Amino acid sequence: MGSRILLIEDEPAISASIAYNLRREGHSVTTAADGALGLDLARQEVPDLVILDVMLPRMDGFEVCRNIRQSAAAELRQVPIIVVTARTDEGDRVIGLDLGADDYVVKPFSMRELTARTKALLRRSSPAGKKRGAVTPLASGGIVLDVENRRATRNGRAISLKPREFDLLACLMQAPGRVFSREDLLDRAWGTDFVGDLRTVDVHVRWLREKLEDDPAKPKFIETIRGVGYRIRAER
Predict the structure, then answer these.
(1) For residue 80, which of 131, 119, 136 has the smallest C-alpha distance?
(2) Residues 48, 138: one domain?
(3) Among residues 15, 45, 127, 224, which one has the least CA distance to residue 233?
(4) Each residue of 175-198: pLDDT tens digit?
(5) What is the pTM of this model?
(6) Cα–Cα distance between 79 and 61 in angstroms, integer?
């Protein structure tokens, strides 16, 4: 059974082509030609995935992404988002990830690439995908992850983590003291079929530090190993 996808794209030819190809894959596709309408539809329908262009009339894609991630509805906050950016606008990609996008594609892109990314993200965000390989609980440095129910606490107090933040932290906490390369973390937390920038890992590590460290500028829980990657400091 296909998924419900919300496509927010203002270029008619691109929107029609994407919608056609996704429907061929069996998905139900709702389209919006401006950001404000797209956000309204996201709130009304709570789709399984949003494909979001950056340059939109009335409300740009960044603002739409920000509003979805700050929504009062927990179900909407968890919806995966693929941001579509122009190839020359490298800063758009970083901003999109900062705001909570799960993936991005750059124009011009092939429909094969977009449908593959869509399929991979839907698979990872499904209940079965989230529970695959679950190990529970994971605990280190006062942080406890209930992987089965996707809950996190720090010193007994609940922490709100985005889906990819949770997956990344779970990867690191499975082996405190072990150094994971960015490539390894990208494969483990995003999947081997994710085709993205290694800086995706750096952005999510920064978010985690802001939530887990007493002083994010001087992290003591998630350590950077220069030239290699990251690790959770082993308890002594």
Answers:
(1) 119
(2) no
(3) 224
(4) 888 899 998 898 888 776 666 678
(5) 0.60
(6) 15
pLDDT digits (tens, 9 = 90+) for 109-119: 888 888 888 98
Q: What is the CA radius of gyration of the chain?
A: 18
Question: In Å, how far from its chain's centre is CA 207?
Answer: 12
Residue 152's Cβ-count burial label (10 Å; 0-12, 13-18, 19+) is buried
Is the domain of 40 the same as that of 22? Answer: yes
Residue 191: give the domain boundaries: 130-232
- Round to whole Å and give the CA distance between 35 and 165: 26
Contact yes or no for 201/182 (Cβ under 8 A): yes
159, 207 in Cβ contact below 8 A?
no
Last residue within a domain, chosen from 125, 141, 162? 125
Binned at pLDDT 50, 70 and 90, residue 132 comes out as very low
pLDDT at 212 over 80: yes
CATH number at residue 155: 1.10.10.10
Cα–Cα distance for residue pair 140/182, rounded to 1 Å: 21
Q: Is beta strand 49-53 parallel, antiparallel or unpaired with respect to 103-107?
A: unpaired
Residue type, 234: A
